[in-house]
Amino acid sequence: MLKFIVVACLCAALCACAATQKESATVALPLAPPPGEPNGLPGMDASAVRVAFGPPVFVRKDGVAEMWRYDNPSCKAFFFLYPSGASLAVRHVETVPRGHDIAADAGCLEQLRARANNPVS
């Protein structure tokens, strides 16, 4: 009977330690990007994105949605496209680095447009 009590006390102590460690292991999530989208991009059809920015350097497909990444030496842009009718359309755009008051920096997007319209040979 004494062994049972000792084992039960040890189990209770281990459970208490595990609960304490779990509480202290909480990690804060990073801040969400600022709200807002650059003018003219939300709702843009996938084919119009290709005309404006060229082919993406990376495409990730998640079910029916797609993320297109465009790279520039000083920044990257991420276009999140979702079904809209028979095609995909932009629902959200972010850049790295971000804009000051919205999730996408207009200067980065203009650099990417210029690069697509004037390809380097």
Which word captures the global form?
Answer: elongated
Number of strands: 4
Helix content: 25-40%
* Main sheet strand line-up: 1-2-3-4
Helix count?
3
**Unreliable parts:** none
Average pLDDT over all residues? 83
Major β-sheet profile: 4 strands, antiparallel
Strand content: 25-35%
Structural class, from secondary structure content?
alpha+beta
Order of helices and strands: HHEEEEH
Kindly report how far apart the N and C termini lie.
84 Å
What would you say this structure looks like, in words?
The chain has 121 residues and is α+β, with helices and mostly antiparallel strands. It has a domain at 46-117. 36% of the residues lie in helices and 27% in strands. It contains three helices and four strands; from the N terminus they run ααββββα. It has helices at residues 2-24, 46-53, 106-117; strands at 58-62, 65-72, 75-84, 87-96. It has a four-stranded antiparallel β-sheet with strand order 1-2-3-4. Strand 1 (58-62) and strand 2 (65-72) form a beta hairpin. The protein starts with a helix and ends with a helix.
